[in-house]
Design brief:
CATH topology of the largest domain: Rossmann fold
Strand order of the largest sheet: 4-3-5-6-16-15
Shape: globular
Bound molecules: zinc ion
Number of domains: 2
CATH superfamily of the largest domain: Vaccinia Virus protein VP39
Helix content: 10-25%
Length: 263
């Protein structure tokens, strides 16, 4: 079915079940578009991908069969879906700065191979380099045939050999300083050189979560492959009955699988 950008659609939020009437062009990646829970296209797409990967079809959270045998974690996930998911799956949200803590660059070996799924939406662009460690550790946390539900802002969809843009490629010993409402990053490189960066990009407001890099699609696929994921699905198709619409192919979410046990 073709939809023109201004055509109103009816969708059911797959997080809170609310029936919404929305203009298609207002369904953007990160603006709230559910009139009840305030979820965005990206947040609903996480539920779409999780349910598709685990159960074979796109379900609302309220439709997920109670499955306490399916174990997963989120990395600083939005509470709007995290709390609801935990009623249907053995799901635990984790945080970098508060309990229950998880630093994906330094995982507990006892957790390796214990999870059916991991969700990290718009987290990996903030992780200090080398970000490859975070991809590898996520793969280690998963069981065979486990699934990693992943999103970050990214550029250059479909373009080969386009690397990520690391904003601070020699980051070593750094601090963020504020003066007159202006933020500046001071870095001392491993070789002892002092660097200053002024064009800082924060997500969630000035001085909050610093963007460390801008991924390209190719850099993500390469990181996934190098980390040992063997199958990546880019979810760029629309799921209009759940208000999920991707007119552009950049920054769309994806799922990556670990190898099945017998392969
Ligand atoms: Zn909702």
């Amino acid at each position: 079915m073709r939809h023109t950008p201004n055509a109103p659609i009816v969708f059911h939020c797959n997080i809170c079940d609310r029936e919404n009437h929305a203009d298609l062009h207002k369904l953007t990646r990160d603006d709230p578009s559910c009139s009840k829970c305030g979820s965005s296209v990206r947040l609903r797409s996480i539920v779409q991908i999780l349910t598709t990967e685990l159960f074979g079809c796109s379900l609302r959270i309220s439709e997920i069969p109670r499955s306490p045998e399916l174990v997963g974690i989120g990395m600083s996930c939005w509470n709007g879906y995290a709390d609801r998911l935990a009623r249907h799956l053995r799901f635990r949200n984790t945080f970098y700065h508060q309990e229950p803590r998880l630093d994906i660059t330094r995982i507990d070996p006892a957790m390796e191979g214990s999870l059916d799924f991991v969700i990290a939406t718009d987290v990996f662009e903030h992780i200090v380099l080398p970000v490859s460690t975070a991809f590898e550790n996520t793969r280690k946390l998963l069981k065979p045939d486990g699934v990693f539900i992943f999103s970050v802002p990214f550029t250059h969809p479909g373009v080969e050999s386009q690397p990520a843009l690391e904003h601070f490629p020699e980051l070593h010993n750094y601090s963020i300083q504020e003066a007159d409402g202006h933020f500046r990053l001071k870095n001392t490189t491993r070789a002892g050189e002092v660097q200053y960066f002024d064009d800082l990009v924060f997500h969630g407001g000035p001085g909050t979560t610093l963007e460390m890099r801008l991924f390209s699609e190719w850099s993500i696929l390469t990181e996934m492959e190098n980390a040992g994921f063997h199958d990546v699905t880019i979810y760029s198709g629309s799921d209009l009955r759940h208000g999920i619409y991707w007119p552009e192919k950049w920054s769309v979410p994806m799922a990556a699988r670990t190898r099945p046990r017998h392969v």
